[in-house]
Amino acid sequence: MSKRSFISLRLIFGLCVLGLVLFLSWHGYAYKAFINSPLNISQQQVIEVRTGDNINQLSRQWYSRGIISNSLYLKVLARLNPQLQKIKVGEYLVEVGDTPLTLLVRLSQGKVIQYSVTIVEGINAHQLIQQFKQQENLVFDLPEPIEKLHQILDLSYAGGQSNHIEGWFYPDTYYFSRASSVLAILKRANQKMQQVLEEEWQARQPGLPYNNPYEALIMASIIEKETGIAVERGKIAGVFVRRLQKNMRLQTDPTVIYGIGPDFNGDITYKDLKTRTSYNTYQIKGLPPTPIAMPGRAAIHAALHPEEGNELYFVATGDGGHYFSETLEQHNAAVRRYQLKR
């Protein structure tokens, strides 16, 4: 090979190397600019990662939607950072100002959009099931009929009736991702109720007329339905506990209403009070067989820490509160004053 030919080859090789360096440098610069530049969106967007989706599929989707400007660079980003390839299924909120890097970090950390559902104090099981049926972002996977739910959940805790779901779901706000299971949320609510009931039971006052925590849960549900005024819960609990201790009937309207069921039209009649059901505490002695609603911690605490006193009666005053009496004569006078006037 001549000297001139050798120089020519070196020159060509050098130019190729230079071209490669320039090519890689340009792409390196473009890659860094890509991963740290805002996505091509002008407002918030929701993206969904479905089961089986991977970075290759998502990069093509996002590129076709115009969210990212280069699908190859996104794949390179994931390849250079293996932890970013472990994306989680769910819905994600893409904010204005997000970059490809922050987006993949969010997907790999599973920071999905959170929805919520609130179980309200005093709601009963029928109302609760209807509420969950209307949740668009949840998968309603409860058995039919609903009563079979007791076969899935542990509802026999602390003396409870294992075939009755009433009262066993703790009122609280529960957060979930889209397409979550109703059953999964009810399991959480049931576990929370058992935990709270056990904590309150262990700290209860001595000498209460309950054989087990389940009976305290029944009482708490009645207290929950009788008043929404915090300062009255302990006082109402005191009245009911004293009546149980004296072998008096509880004579509380919410239990009658629960015994009537969904057909209740909003007005208790004399016939309703005289119709014997297992929940009509004007006709039966002691507690009804199950709770009548979902009580919160405050009502459970009141049932296990009733206020001392001599009152055995109370009547609604019409303003949300109650008037308490020690004797039947005082109570009848209060009924005439507050009820018959209305």
Automatic annotation (TrEMBL):
Role: Functions as a peptidoglycan terminase that cleaves nascent peptidoglycan strands endolytically to terminate their elongation.
Protein name: Endolytic murein transglycosylase
Gene3D superfamilies in alphabetical order: Classic Zinc Finger, Endolytic murein transglycosylase
Residues of the site described as Important for catalytic activity: 226
Gene name in the database record: mltG
Catalysed reaction equations from the record: a peptidoglycan chain = a peptidoglycan chain with N-acetyl-1,6-anhydromuramyl-[peptide] at the reducing end + a peptidoglycan chain with N-acetylglucosamine at the non-reducing end
Organism of this sequence: Aliikangiella maris
The protein's Enzyme Commission number: 4.2.2.29
Key words, A-Z: Cell inner membrane, Cell membrane, Cell wall biogenesis/degradation, Lyase, Membrane, Transmembrane, Transmembrane helix
Family affiliation: Belongs to the transglycosylase MltG family.
CDD domains linked: MltG_like (cd08010)
Signal peptide (residue range): none
Domain of life: Bacteria
Short name of any one Pfam family annotated for the protein: YceG
